[in-house]
Design goal:
It is a single chain. By secondary structure, the chain is of the alpha/beta class. Helices cover 54% and strands 12% of the residues. A 5-stranded mixed β-sheet has the order 3-2-1-4-5, with helices on both faces. It starts with a strand and ends with a helix.
Length: 240
């Protein structure tokens, strides 16, 4: 079976830690880098930010149900790639190494799992600082600035390190997966993972009109109570 390991680096003005990946990909989102490797082959990287294109075969394999895609926290790669291609990627095509690790009682993060398994391959420590740097639009814009400057040269240097960091994450994820595969992830758990992903993808239907009216009523009620109106009277007055 062909296995395609993936890791991506992205930009969005939205803070993903506060809103999650779905909101993160809605506004001014872009994929900067895609690192990938088939089976045990060499890890390659595509620099979308600087004009490189996704090879046709890779794009085909991303959507090929017979090709298993793997990533650590595969939900992120799957949703981001779905947004990039404007085409839905089913969770059935993905295997999440993070979920497998958690199933076996291992830590949550890629770096912590690699350390706990005492792997030769470890996550690069400078990754967090590079992500923080390229989360800022002004730093990303330096890469394509027309005028040469010290700031641009520094940004380009950091971007090369960013690319190495992205590639290394694929190496680490693949090494973790090889160890974890000694204890197979049950098919029943994979089905539950897929169901969980599909529920999240679908979301929950909300009566926005009702929600907006409830917010208005709540505000009116609070203002009357703060003004000294008895709570029972305020409740009926807010509805009126």
């Amino acid at each position: 079976m062909k296995v395609l390991a993936l890791d991506i680096e992205t930009y969005s003005p939205v803070d993903i830690t506060k809103c999650g990946v779905y909101k993160y990909t809605e506004e001014d989102f872009e994929i900067l880098l895609i690192a990938y490797a088939y089976n045990d082959e060499e890890v390659k990287i595509i620099d979308l930010k600087r004009g490189e294109k996704i090879p046709p075969q890779l794009e085909k394999d991303i959507f090929d149900e017979s090709v298993i895609k793997t990533a650590f926290n595969a939900n992120f790669e799957r949703i981001c790639l779905s947004k990039h291609f404007n085409r839905y990627l089913s969770p059935k095509m993905f295997r999440c190494t993070q979920v497998h690790a958690l199933y076996l009682g291992l830590p949550h993060g890629l770096d912590k799992v690699a350390k706990s398994l005492n792997l030769k391959e470890q996550k690069l420590e400078e990754g967090k600082s590079l992500i923080r740097f390229f989360m800022k639009k002004e730093n990303l814009d330096l890469l394509s600035a027309k005028d040469e400057s010290k700031e641009k040269l520094e940004a380009i240097k950091k971007y090369e390190s960013f690319k190495n960091y992205c590639k290394n994450d694929v190496v680490v994820e693949r090494s973790i997966r090889k160890v974890l595969d000694k204890v197979k992830f049950p098919e029943s758990e994979q089905k539950l993972y897929e169901l969980d992903q599909e529920i999240n993808d679908r979301g929950v239907l909300i009566d926005t009109n009702l929600l907006e009216k409830a917010i208005i009523l709540d505000k009116a009620y609070k203002e009357m109570v703060e003004a000294g109106v008895p709570k029972e009277d305020a409740r009926y007055s807010a509805v009126e």
